[in-house]
Every structure is written in C-alpha cells, then in structure tokens.
Amino acid sequence: MPPIDDVGLMRATPMTADVAEYEIVVDPVWGYRRLEPLPSSPELDEFYESHYRDLLDDGGRAPDLARLVAGGPDAAIEREWQAATIHADVLAALEAGAGEGLPRRALDVGCGTGELLRTLVTAGWDATGTEPAAAIAAVGRAAGLQVEAATAADYVARWRAAGGPPFGGVVLLNVLEHVPDPATLLGDVVTTLAPGGRLVVRVPNDFSPLQEAAHRVLGGRPWWVAVPDHVNYFDHASIGALVERIGLEIVDRSADFPMELFLLMGDDYRDDPAVGHAVHDRRRRADLALDPATRRSLGRAWAAAGIGRNALVVARKPA
Q1: Which of 75, 109, 142, 262 sits between 20 and 30 A of 116, alpha carbons compared?
Q2: From edge to edge, which strands make up the β-sheet containing 147-148?
Q3: Per residue of the chain (319 residues), what is the pLDDT tens digit?
Q4: Element counts in the chain: helices (H) and strands (E)
Q5: Into how many domains does the chain fold?
Q6: Residue 28 neighbours by CB distance under 10 Å
Q7: CATH number of residue 102's parent domain
C-alpha cells in the first residue's frame, strides 16, 4: 500500500521494507487498528532521520507541515488558518484548566516547527515542545521557540531527573499514529501533568464511514494507510477508549472538516496534487468563514457521527 498525505495523495516512500509484508489488525489489548508486524524502532528512526524531510519537501507527507517548512505566501495562509482553528481550540481547552488555577505551562509533544508553541506563547503560556526530527526542530528554535530535538520519552526522563515543574496542559497533535506504543507514550507524558491538568490529543480518524463509502465508490487501495510512519489507525471510539484506560476523564470530543466529502462529490484528490491543493484551500475558506462557536458545534456533531478527518479528545487528569 503506498502511503499518503492527509488529503489522500498517493506517494512512493523510499523504504527498504516491503510494505506488502504489513497487515492492518485490531490490537487485542487496546482495540485500535495497527500494523502487523510493527516496524522496528531502528526502521522508524532511519525513516525519520533520512527520508521524512525529503518527503515533506517534495509533497509526499504532511502537506500542512510541508507548507510551513517551505515558507512563502502559502505558509502565511496556512499559519493563519491553523491559528484560527486547531490552535484556538487547543488554547480554549488549556485556558479552561488555567481558569481552575492550573499552571500556565504547556508541553507540545511532536511540535513540528513550533507553530502551536507560537500561539501559546503569544497567549501568555510558558510553552515547550519536543520534536524528534532535528531538521524540523531547528526551524522552531531559529524562531526563538523552546523546541527540544528529542523524543517525548527522552524529554520526560530528563524532566523527571531534574524534578521539573508540572504542566497545566500537554498536547499531542497527530503524534500517536506514528509511535509503536501509544499507551506507554501517553502514560509517560501524563506524569508531567499537574492534578486537574488537561491532555489534548488529535489523531487521524481512519477507517471512518466516509472513507469506507468513498472507497466503495472509487475503488483502489485504502489511500489513508501510510506505511511505515502511520503505525496506528484510530477512530473516535478507539482514541477515547485509550485515553480513558490510562485514567483520564474525557471532557470534550470533536472533529475537523470531513475531507472525504470532496471525494464523494467528485473531487478525486487521491493522486492529483492540484485537486488536493484546491480542496484544501476550499476547506480553509470554510473554516475561516465560520465563527468559532459554530465551527466547534459542527466538530462535536461530526465526532458524534464518527466522521471528520481527525478526531480530537480533551481529557482531565484526576485531582
């Protein structure tokens, strides 16, 4: 199965492993879908260190991040859209905790170039990010942001050893799909939260009813499967169950725009970059035209229906 970006563009990946060797199975312990067998840690490390930045540069992965890394007018539009939507939603969730007296300190796990950190710092938060891809982390540091070129596990280990102060909020945006053991990662980062602290998690909402409908109509391979970097495949139910099983209380669920609607309406972006860019621009325009309350109400309704391109969960650490 050739991997894809987040609007479904089919791309080739320079990997030594044969992707046909992998199957998608339901994890017998946690209930989310994942690759079987799991890629080895050295294989994943080699992919991110040697290939991921090249794929960003040529459009083969994470087009939103690629636009930000590339800079230029499209990066400015992308930054405005992200700040007004997902960043605003994360900030609202964290501010709810700060209103209860939690520290205005936030940890952004897998922060990329640090765009969310920029939003949080502007809002008066002491924000730190971790980003294992050194070249991407360097972009954030060059902008004066606190970005650690480290895995979350390495950062948490150093935080514990130093007796670091607790965080009022921990954020993982599109991280858990990439790691071999998401339950352990969540358990580690939750230890850095103050009692009552907020965890905000977003993952791709995969094998959704809209994806399955588009797949039936259009055929081909499941374009949302991205080997090897998308190790896990969550939906609204499975990410919520994982968060609850590590001991947190869910306080909100949401989703973002269901991109698969474009496929069902005849805009087949799966292997056409020009169509992919056009539908992404239409989605941005719609998001920015809506007032935040209406957009969030739609997001909660999409989550209740099991649709939306990404699933968002806000949870509270018990006091």
Answers
A1: 262
A2: 147-148, 126-130, 105-109, 167-173, 193-204, 310-316, 249-255
A3: 223 333 333 233 333 344 557 899 999 999 999 999 988 776 776 666 555 555 555 555 555 656 555 666 778 889 999 999 999 999 999 999 999 999 999 999 999 999 999 999 999 999 999 999 888 899 999 999 999 999 999 999 999 999 999 999 999 999 999 999 999 999 999 999 999 999 999 999 999 999 999 999 999 999 999 888 899 999 999 999 999 999 999 999 999 999 999 999 999 999 899 999 999 999 999 999 999 999 999 999 999 999 999 999 999 999 8
A4: 14, 10
A5: 1
A6: 6
A7: 3.40.50.150
Which phi and psi angles does 207 have, rounded to 5°? Answer: 55, 40
DSSP state, 275? H
Q: Answer yes or no: is 11 within a domain.
A: no
Q: In what order do the strands lie in the sheet with 23-26?
A: 23-26, 33-36, 232-233
Distances (CA, A) of 130 to 62, 146, 304: 18, 9, 31
Residue 84 counted as domain residue: yes
Residue type, 130: T
State pTM to two decimals: 0.88
DSSP state of 139: H
**Domain, as residue range, for 280:** 19-316
**47, amino acid identity:** F
Quick check: is 285 in a domain? yes
Half-sphere exposure of 215 (CA within 13 A, CB side): 13
3 state SS of 304:
helix
